[in-house]
């Protein structure tokens, strides 16, 4: 019995026959068994003629992984003398803003807060703040973040006294309810990003 020939763009399921090792090298989502190539995941067939490689591109959206250079939105869960610990909520710009696939913990070291000297992490971040930060290392857990840059930093903060959302006045935050004034490493996008 002759197997049916698959074409680029065909939808395949795990275990579907794709061809023989003499035709193509197995790429992502493909395994070789006794010289024959089979799909290991559901998806669309992709053929790279230059590399003579066949692969299966998933059609189901897999949870995104943060990569170096990605901008993430996260909530500060702890502030230490040398670092702020952030729980990453999502990766900015990824369609449908799905939760990330790896550990959601990230850290902002005191040296990565701003371009200038930072005296105290307590003046830059508070527990509960929502931050916009860039991934600078994603190899190990926790992911390492930086808020160096005009558009990076705190994008939403609550008053530490009465928990009212703070309003930006220049480079400071003012509580509209109790008048308390606080400082943060503020993003130019403060209260302009969906939280």
Percentage of residues in helical conformation: under 10%
Strand order of the biggest β-sheet: 8-9-10-12-11
Give the termini distance in whole angstroms. 57 Å
The overall average pLDDT, rounded, is 89
Describe the biggest sheet?
5 strands, mixed, barrel
Question: SSE string, helix = H, strand = E?
Answer: EEEEEEEEEEEEEEEE
Strand-residue proportion: 35-45%
Q: How many helices does DSSP assign? A: 0
Let me know the number of strands: 16
| Anisotropy-based shape | elongated
Unreliably modeled segments: none
| Radius of gyration, whole Å | 24 Å
Structural class: mainly beta
SSE diagram, text form:
Blueprint lengths: L10 E2 L4 E4 L4 E2 L3 E4 L2 E4 L3 E6 L4 E6 L12 E9 L3 E9 L13 E5 L20 E8 L5 E4 L6 E4 L10 E3 L2 E3 L6 E2 L13
Parallel strand pairs: 3-7, 10-12
Antiparallel strand pairs: 1-6, 2-5, 4-5, 6-7, 8-9, 8-11, 9-10, 11-12, 11-13, 14-15, 15-16
């Amino acid at each position: 019995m002759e197997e049916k020939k698959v074409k680029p763009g065909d939808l395949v399921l795990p275990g579907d026959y794709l061809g023989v090792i003499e035709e193509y090298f197995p790429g992502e989502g493909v395994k070789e068994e006794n010289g024959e190539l089979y799909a290991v995941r559901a998806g669309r067939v992709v053929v790279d003629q230059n590399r003579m490689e066949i692969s299966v591109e998933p059609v189901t959206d897999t949870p995104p992984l943060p990569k170096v250079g990605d901008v993430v939105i996260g909530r500060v869960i702890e502030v230490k003398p040398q670092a702020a610990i952030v729980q990453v909520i999502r990766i900015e710009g990824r369609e449908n803003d799905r939760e990330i696939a790896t550990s959601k913990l990230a850290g902002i070291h005191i040296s990565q807060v701003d371009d200038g000297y930072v005296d105290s992490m307590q003046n830059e971040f508070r527990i509960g703040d929502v931050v916009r930060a860039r991934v600078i290392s994603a190899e190990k857990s926790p992911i390492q973040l930086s808020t160096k840059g005009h558009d990076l930093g705190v994008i939403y903060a609550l008053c530490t006294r009465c928990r009212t959302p703070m309003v930006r006045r220049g480079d400071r935050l003012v509580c509209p309810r109790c008048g308390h004034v606080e400082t943060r490493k503020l993003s130019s996008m403060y209260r302009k990003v969906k939280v």
